[in-house]
Structures are given as C-alpha cells and as structure tokens.
C-alpha cells in the first residue's frame, strides 16, 4: 500500500522546465491537463502569457523549478 506521503504529483501553479525533444526545454507555470486529439497534454503558461500544450508522449523529463504557492486557508467564522 502506498501512502499519500510517497506520491508525487505535478502541481498546478508550480514552475517546471520540460524537455520534450530537440528544441530548447519549455519553462513555464503548469496550468492543468487538456486533450490533443486522443492524447493527453500538459498545459504550461510561458512568459508573456502564451499557453503551450505538450502531449505526454513528447515529454522526456520535467524539472521542478519552483513549487506551487501554498493555498491560503481562510478560517470561517460562524
């Protein structure tokens, strides 16, 4: 049985460098998942606000550059 502590996830809001072939790695903020035809893609926001969709089979590796910001917790007053 695997505990949650030993699982690794790609976090929305974290900054990654993505190696996906011959070109320079893509550096951007992970925004979420999408579909390109029948393939799943990771979506990254690049500097300047452009979105880049990279299909999973293209990805060779990801480097985590900055962790996602901690979610602010708000205490509810009753």
Describe the protein.
This protein is an all-beta fold and 78 residues long. The protein has strands spanning 15-19, 26-36, 39-45, 51-55, 61-66. A 5-stranded antiparallel sheet has the order 4-3-2-1-5, with no helix packed on it. Strand 1 and strand 2 (26-36) form a beta hairpin. The model has no long low-confidence stretch (mean pLDDT 88).
Provide a count of the helices.
Answer: 0
* DSSP strand tally: 5
- Provide the structure class: mainly beta
Strand order of the largest sheet: 4-3-2-1-5
| Share of helical residues | under 10%
What is the 3D shape? globular
What is the average per-residue confidence, as pLDDT, rounded to a whole number? 88
Which percent range describes the beta-strand content? 35-45%
Low-pLDDT stretches are none
Rg computed from alpha carbons, rounded to a whole number of angstroms:
15 Å
Write the layout of secondary structure elements.
Layout: E1 15-19, E2 26-36, E3 39-45, E4 51-55, E5 61-66
Antiparallel strand pairs: 1-2, 1-5, 2-3, 3-4
């Amino acid at each position: 049985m695997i505990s949650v502590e030993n699982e690794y996830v790609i976090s929305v809001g974290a900054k990654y460098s993505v190696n996906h072939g011959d070109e320079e790695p893509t550096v951007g903020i992970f925004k979420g998942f999408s579909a390109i035809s029948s393939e799943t893609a990771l979506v990254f926001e690049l500097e300047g606000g452009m979105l880049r969709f990279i299909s999973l089979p293209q990805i060779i590796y990801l480097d985590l550059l900055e962790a996602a910001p901690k979610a602010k917790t708000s205490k509810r007053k009753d």
